């Protein structure tokens, strides 16, 4: 508590305290071929507890509002992919345009532009000012916090060093800052690309022609046909490359298409699969099938291997839900057959696709989602969700 107060006093005076993030190896499996490449080793930077508490003290109000208003703030942080949330996202994209851009950045977090990170501090301070926090001390503290994370200090074994780009992955603000920087990147790119195309070079034009959603370094956009020849995945890739940012499509293909249909788009490693017709259409979120099957093939070292295996098998079945009943039944049949043939006494709940479907869509009738034939305009007053 004493350390938190000491550092907060420094922040409110405009002095950047020493906040050291501890680097450690990320506990994750990677392909064998990547193990031979040192640059593919994943690092996770742990935040000191006092910093986590202090950042929440000064910024939690914004974080809650930003996440809680999700799609209205063009982010999908915390989205529940199995259920109405995914349908709502689909409709907001599909009712705007059939031209979909979805991409992926390489090394996004480690190369995050420090200037953009600091601009996010200004955006957040404006939000606090608009919502009644006029404290100059709080404003100054938030500016200092973003100085701490934009040029963060790290310790790796016995080496202490400072970065000039990037965000500490273990910082409590990382996902939210990444999302906001992602939004800035796309807008800067739009202004840079359309500057040569005779399209108005302002953000009002962006709001008119683009509907963007992002989640950290992931993004998906719906773009009107009026500007798709000038603003598309290929022109984005070229623009970002000129700024030293590597941008590819979400499948990391060797050749990038200008845009795709929403049924072919991949966002958060999920696709959009429609079932039903008209306003009763449900949109499912099938996960890459390799991730579904991989879940059942590996487990963490555990004191109870049988129980851990059972949990993984159940989770694998649940992950296959978005692929539909036929694929779910196929995967469940394979897993159950493996259980019967094993010598271990593995007890797994007998899941049925219909039961899971009822569980996921239990409150669907209470959820208002704009009809498919309605075009949602930028800054539409109706947020798309109403609970009676």
What key attributes describe this structure?
single chain; 388 residues; alpha+beta; Alpha-Beta Plaits; Mitochondrial Import Receptor Subunit Tom20, Chain A; 2 domains; four-stranded mixed β-sheet; four-stranded antiparallel β-sheet; 13 helices; 10 strands; 43% helix; globular; disordered C terminus; nucleotidyltransferase; peptidase activity
What does this structure look like?
Residues 98-231 form the RdRp catalytic domain. Keywords: Hydrolase, Nucleotidyltransferase, Protease, RNA-directed RNA polymerase, Transferase. With 388 residues, this protein is α+β, with helices and mostly antiparallel strands. It has helices at residues 2-12, 32-35, 49-68, 84-94, 114-130, 136-150, 174-194, 203-209, 233-242, 289-297, 305-319, 325-341, 353-360; strands spanning 20-25, 43-46, 100-105, 153-156, 159-162, 210-215, 218-223, 247-249, 273-275, 282-284. The protein has two domains: 2-76 and 99-260, Reverse transcriptase/Diguanylate cyclase domain (Alpha-Beta Plaits), CATH 3.30.70.270; 289-364, Mitochondrial Import Receptor Subunit Tom20, Chain A, CATH 1.20.960. It has 13 helices and ten strands. It has a four-stranded mixed β-sheet, with no helix packed on it. A four-stranded antiparallel β-sheet has the order 6-7-3-8, with helices on both faces. The chain is globular.
